[in-house]
Design a protein that fits this description.
Layout (H helix, E strand, L loop, with lengths): L2 H11 L12 E4 L8 E5 L4 H9 L4 E4 L16 H11 L3 E4 L2 H5 L4 H9 L5 E19 L3 H10 L12 E10 L16 E13 H14 L7 E20 L6 H12 L5 E3 L8 E8 L4 H6 L4 E5 L3 H9 L3 E4 L2 H5 L2 H9 L6 E4 L11
Parallel strand pairs: 2-3, 2-13, 3-4, 10-11, 11-12
Antiparallel strand pairs: 1-4, 5-7, 5-8, 6-7, 8-10, 9-12
Helix pairs in contact: 1-7, 6-7
Bound molecules: zinc ion (ZN).
């Protein structure tokens, strides 16, 4: 598959515009026209990961942490980053990063963390954005009206609240003249044709737009399909960072820590607060989320599970009667490999492997 086509699939699910302004996401190194067969997923790419990619004949590395983050003025082999970029290009390996857009997106890192823990009915902790919506209008001959409308509905277009398959349909006359080299479904070369058509209008969220258009074109009988896409001002579903959920109330802080250690395969965990505290509502922010302690408290959460908690943040949490489970930045995010592999495994002709390089810089002795 062409890298550009793979990126389209990834960005339909995890749109770049969800990322924070300061972030650096998308294709950071590579040729959009390259053919991609083998993908390596990793939390980040250091020298060992790039070497691993070369040895395993990888075409594309996908990282969570942006491979290029600070502004670079030179790319040469005297500097580590320059050397790695040089190596990637020399070995025809592309590199794509998905960071805060992946934290925020549905089925991204925070949702996956909740899934691993078995926490259901999750809500967004910090709403950052609303989903972009589009109106799609397509002109279909009467004979294929039902077929195209069904395909649009099956692709997920036309959802308004609890209603699916919403469309508006207007009958009219379509006109066209097939020119030389055309292969018309109706009509003859050089003659103006008039056909009874229906204009079908429906609403599509950004993450389904490309898939919907592709399926619509496939189901449409015409050689050239006439359709319009309008970006709407209507706000779609809200998206944001972190998640929270009510749990059954059977766990206290200590038993929740044990559960996390088991699920994330960890030996140690840092915890702030009384271990006997009953936990009825949990907040999760993967990576560094200690600045969201008071937000979690405002949603009546009993605990926030995150990483990178500093001493004074821990003290402030105790003062406000909040508890924190600090799993570490690495352990809340290394699951990136699992969730990305699960997504990429749904794409035909792409083989995805998890990096075997252990990237946590900290050791506990
Ligand atoms: Zn991170």
């Amino acid at each position: 598959m062409k890298l550009n086509d793979l990126i389209k699939k990834i960005e339909n699910k995890y749109p770049l515009n969800l990322a924070y302004d300061w972030d650096n996401v998308g294709l950071l190194v590579g040729d959009f026209d390259n053919k991609i067969k083998k993908v390596l997923v990793t939390l980040e790419a250091n020298e060992s990961v790039v070497e691993e990619a070369i040895q395993k004949n990888i075409d594309l590395i996908i990282t969570h942490h942006p491979f290029i983050f600070r502004k670079m003025n030179k790319i040469n082999t005297k500097d580590l980053k320059g050397r790695l970029i040089h190596k990637l290009i020399k070995n025809d390996i592309a590199l794509y990063s998905m960071h805060t857009n992946f934290d925020i997106a549905f089925d991204g890192l925070n949702d996956y963390f909740m899934e691993v823990m078995g926490f259901e009915n999750t809500k967004i902790l910090d709403v950052t954005n609303s989903e972009t919506l589009y109106k799609v209008a397509v002109y279909v001959p009467k004979t294929h009206e039902l077929q195209v409308r069904k395909v649009l509905g099956d692709a997920g277009a036309g959802y308004i609240g609890n209603y699916s398959n919403c469309t508006f349909n207007i009958n009219g006359i379509g006109t066209f003249k097939p020119e030389d080299n055309a292969n018309p479904f109706i009509g003859n070369i050089g003659e103006i044709e008039e056909v009874e058509e229906v204009k079908i209008e429906t609403i599509v969220p950004q993450n389904l737009l490309q898939k919907t258009i592709d399926k619509m074109i496939k189901a449409h009988p015409y050689e050239e399909v006439a359709y319009d896409i309008y970006k709407l001002e209507n706000k779609g579903e809200t998206v944001g960072l972190g998640r929270y959920a009510s749990i059954d109330g059977q766990l206290n802080l200590e038993s929740l820590c044990e559960k996390i250690k088991l699920k994330l395969n960890m030996n140690h965990i840092r915890v702030v607060g009384d271990l006997n505290t009953k936990i009825k509502k949990v907040a999760v922010v993967t990576g560094a989320g200690s600045d969201m302690v008071s937000l979690a408290k405002s949603k009546n959460c009993d605990v926030i599970i995150t990483g990178d908690v500093k001493y004074h943040e821990a003290q402030d949490a105790l003062d406000m009667g909040m508890t924190i489970i600090d799993c570490g930045h690495f352990d809340t995010e290394d699951i990136f490999k699992d969730v990305m592999k699960r997504f990429l495994d749904t794409i035909e002709n792409i083989e995805t492997i998890r990096s075997e390089i252990y990237l946590n810089p900290f050791k506990i002795i």
